[in-house]
Amino acid sequence: MDAKQIAGEKAAEYVKDEMVVGLGTGSTVYWTIVKLGQLVKNGLKMKGVPTSTKTEELARSLGIPLIDINNAKKIDLAIDGADEVDAEFNLIKGGGGALLREKMIASLAERFLVVVDETKCVKTLGSFPLPVEIVPFGWQMTRNRIDGLGCESKLRTAGRAPYITDNGNFILDCGFDEIHDANGLNLELNRIPGVVENGLFVNMTDAIVIGRNRGKVEE
Ligand code: 5RP
């Protein structure tokens, strides 16, 4: 079993009867969702709030009951992957393009559980280019302002066209190399008109499950 699968499946153990659960996006939390599908078939009573259309389709195909975010009185637990995790459990997310809904749902959840394989753990955030979701209108101007914060950004593409998020926006992947003040950068980015949200998740993580190779898991 690979490290992503180990971590993903372990996280499903945190889901208890009657919980409303934020369902993240990506190839690690995929295994959590698959496991939850099996548990639901065996009688687990839960409802999911998906963070992307991809996750929504997966959860539906597995028979997991879903609830619209606007109708969820509360979200007990959100489970999601990450592209990088530092020692304070701050994250870079958005490699899969779902960072806006992921951040909304994580911020609404009473507990936010992150599932990663060991390769995601870093000393300093920033080797993974930081995804920033921006509105298409005037995007090159927004990009110039973001680059002014000290990065080199690239417009994410799908084939020859810009990649479009579930919310109809673009994504810039921003190479900062090393991010020493994640909180400050998060605030600065979100102050730029045209920026919808960025992939820094600061002080949001409550717990982490790390899948290690050779079948080990750390909580
Ligand atoms: C999607 C994300 C993912 O959680 C992140 O990219 C990690 O994905 P994976 O588990 O496939 O490595 O933020 O927007």
UniProtKB/TrEMBL annotation:
Active site: 102
Keyword Isomerase set for record: yes
Residues where substrate binds: 25-28, 80-83, 93-96, 120
InterPro entries assigned to the protein according to its UniProt record, in alphabetical order: NagB/RpiA_transferase-like (IPR037171), Ribose-5P_isomerase (IPR050262), Ribose5P_isomerase_typA_subgr (IPR020672), Ribose5P_isomerase_type_A (IPR004788)
Family note: Belongs to the ribose 5-phosphate isomerase family.
Quaternary structure (record): Homodimer.
PANTHER family to which the protein is assigned, alphabetical: RIBOSE-5-PHOSPHATE ISOMERASE 3, CHLOROPLASTIC-RELATED
Name of the protein this chain belongs to: Ribose-5-phosphate isomerase A
Natural source organism: Cohnella kolymensis
Taxonomic path: Bacteria, Bacillati, Bacillota, Bacilli, Bacillales
